[in-house]
Specification:
By secondary structure, the protein is mostly helical. Helix content is 41%, strand content 0%. The longest helix is centred in the first third of the chain and has 16 residues, at 7-22.
């Protein structure tokens, strides 16, 4: 997790606010910034073991578990930002979810951090 002032951190803060608001405070979200809980491999293993409930990892890193997902790391694969979002939220969405979930991880959303 990046520092709180960067995009990933800002998203985590907003997620916390929304979860706590929508549950009237019944659910509490703790945010750990600056890799306090380790790296992406630690996050995925934490999800799989049940010691971590929600995290953010790159699809490129997750491809070490599911090699087919490497396709999304190909440079210049998309013609535009809109095309990229259309691909992952449209025709390929269910396939991506199935590939991720067979490893004991539930995919909630895609988040853009830049592309080529």
């Amino acid at each position: 997790m990046q520092p709180p002032e960067q995009s990933e951190g800002l998203l985590a803060i907003k997620f916390k606010e929304l979860v706590e608001e929508k549950t009237d405070g019944a659910a509490k979200v703790e945010i750990y910034f600056r890799s306090e809980l380790g790296g992406q491999k630690d996050y995925i293993e934490g999800l799989r073991m049940g010691t971590l409930e929600v995290t953010w990892v790159t699809i490129g890193f997750f491809s070490s578990y599911e090699p087919m997902l490497n396709i999304f790391e190909l440079p210049f694969l998309y013609t535009s930002r809109e095309h990229a979002f259309w691909m992952v939220n449209g025709p390929l969405n269910e396939m991506i979810k199935e590939r991720v979930e067979k490893h004991g991880v539930k995919l909630l959303a895609f988040f853009e951090v830049g592309s080529r």
